[in-house]
Amino acid sequence: MSEFKAGNVRVLVVDGQRGMRSILRQLLAQIGIEDVIEARNGEEALEMIDQPETPEPDVIICDLRLDKLDGLELCNMFRRDKDRVMPIIIVTGEADEFLHDVARQVGAVEVLTKPVSAPDLLEQIQAAIGFAGNA
Known about the structure:
Layout: E1 10-14, H1 18-30, E2 35-39, H2 42-50, E3 59-62, H3 71-80, E4 88-92, H4 97-105, E5 110-113, H5 118-128
Parallel strand pairs: 1-2, 1-3, 3-4, 4-5
């Protein structure tokens, strides 16, 4: 397996709060991921991904509660569309394990409860894109 290079990873952060998108961007920068694009909701995220001139993200970090298309709906859409193979990590303030399980069942590769740390994100991103254990 090749070595994980954070600088080669492109992340789409989907969160309705600008402050949370900024925090996630800062945490990603701490682990060497600078190629970050942002969307305010699932609908905007899909529009960005569907633009042919925009390179697809390697991983999506998404809040559970979003306007227009929430994290569960986004995960479910990706799970059902075999042409979309992008892992989704849910980052949420919801501590309800049942809700976390539902998110995993509809396609999230992992669910993290806020607050999250840079090492937590690194571990989950590596696992999501196939580089677990190579930090």
